[in-house]
Design brief:
Pectate Lyase C-like; 5peptide_repeat; elongated; two-stranded antiparallel ribbon
Length: about 230
């Protein structure tokens, strides 16, 4: 159900991400035909503990898949899309993703340490209990995305475009939002927002919980205010 908040005197609706439409029955991965390679089209496959390590692939299309404990460490993905899929306890450390989209996906308990996502799209995505410290999402377009219970210290959202994005119970200490665009509703609920940079770009965002004072201090610092005892 959508949540309703007041923003700038008008009513703004917060749309929850649409859940993945994963097939009821999946076939187990056969790596002789279900590996990640250039121009691969993969549908309705379940991967368990699969290593996709240090690959370099373009134009992958995966739909209705389940990835459990799979490792993408050090892999480079270009112009690819994953839709209606789930990722559980996966490792995306040091992944370089250029023009990569996640559409109607849930990512839980996964690690994104040192990963870089650039100029792609997240639409109807929920990330929960993930470690994204640090992770880069520069020039990404985020539509109906929720980050829940994630460790996101030093996360970089420079020049990202955010439409209907919510951060709940996340640690965003030292996160970077310079030149980010709040193009819809952006909410921070119960988050740690110490030393956040680029706070002026978050104009119009809704902050709920103790993070409101932390964000105010960051905004004051960027404005050049000096506080003396």
């Amino acid at each position: 159900m959508a949540q309703v908040t007041r923003q700038g005197g008008r009513t703004a609706r917060i749309k929850n991400p649409t859940a993945p439409r994963t097939p009821v029955s999946l076939r187990l991965a056969d790596m002789s035909r279900d590996g990640l390679e250039d121009d691969a089209i993969i549908r309705g496959v379940a991967y368990e503990g699969t290593p996709f390590l240090a690959l370099s692939v373009e134009a992958v299309e995966a739909e209705g898949c389940v990835f459990a404990s799979s490792r993408f460490t050090g892999t480079r993905l270009v112009r690819s899309q994953f839709s209606d899929s789930t990722f559980t306890t996966c490792d995306f450390a040091e992944v370089s993703a250029q023009d990569v989209s996640l559409i109607r996906c849930v990512v839980s308990g996964s690690r994104f340490t040192g990963s870089s996502w650039h100029a792609g799209i997240f639409r109807d995505v929920r990330m929960e209990n993930c470690v994204i410290a640090p992770g880069m999402f520069r020039h990404m377009k985020l539509y109906s995305v929720v980050f829940s219970g994630c460790k996101m210290t030093g996360a970089d959202f420079q020049s990202a475009e955010m439409h209907n994005v919510k951060f709940e119970n996340c640690d965003l200490t030292g996160a970077q939002f310079a030149n980010a665009k709040n193009a819809g509703v952006v909410r921070f609920e119960g988050c740690t927002l110490i030393d956040v940079c680029g706070t002026a770009s978050l104009k119009g965002a809704v902050v709920q919980g103790p993070g409101s004072m932390e964000l105010a201090l960051s905004l004051a610092r960027e404005a050049g205010l000096v506080f003396e005892p």
